[in-house]
TrEMBL record:
Source organism, top-level taxon: Bacteria
Binding site for substrate: H7, R45, Y114
UniProt xrefs under PANTHER family: 5-HYDROXYISOURATE HYDROLASE (PTHR10395:SF7), URICASE AND TRANSTHYRETIN-RELATED (PTHR10395)
Protein name: 5-hydroxyisourate hydrolase
Record text on subunit structure and interactions: Homotetramer.
InterPro entries tied to this protein: Hydroxyisourate_hydrolase (IPR014306), Thyroxine_BS (IPR023418), Transthyretin/HIU_hydrolase (IPR000895), Transthyretin/HIU_hydrolase_d (IPR023416), Transthyretin/HIU_hydrolase_sf (IPR036817), Transthyretin_CS (IPR023419)
């Protein structure tokens, strides 16, 4: 059974990023449909897959990480507007029977992602 998962690591602190809200969207014909929300736990992961089973289909998806809120709580001082606040990651799912793991490596001035396992 396929599923979509994520985790967030704070690379500036070298630790998992707890408390980041993630909005989940399915994108079709240029329209974004909000299909869920999750919050990272103490391990920087979500307590359950973001999508799985019949809710996880081939197509385009977007994860929107509310990183600015996390950075404020961590006491990271920055000019407003912050360089990084809301981080959208759009990606394609060709085979919804597979596991798509889309992590975010975060610091106050940069981020990276990849398809993990």
């Amino acid at each position: 059974m396929g599923r979509l998962t994520t985790h967030v690591l704070d690379t500036a602190k070298g630790q998992p990023a707890q408390g980041i809200t993630i909005d989940i969207f399915h994108v079709a014909a240029g329209h974004r449909e909000h299909v869920g929300e999750a919050v990272t736990n103490a391990e920087g992961r979500c307590d359950a897959p973001l999508l799985e089973g019949e809710a996880f289909t081939p197509g385009e998806y977007e994860l929107v990480f509310h990183a600015g809120d996390y950075l404020r709580v961590q006491g990271v001082e920055a000019e407003e507007p912050r360089f990084l606040d809301v981080i959208p990651l759009r990606f394609g799912v060709a085979d919804a029977d597979q596991h798509y793991h889309v992590p975010l490596l975060l610091s106050p001035y940069g981020y990276s992602t990849y398809r993990g396992s």
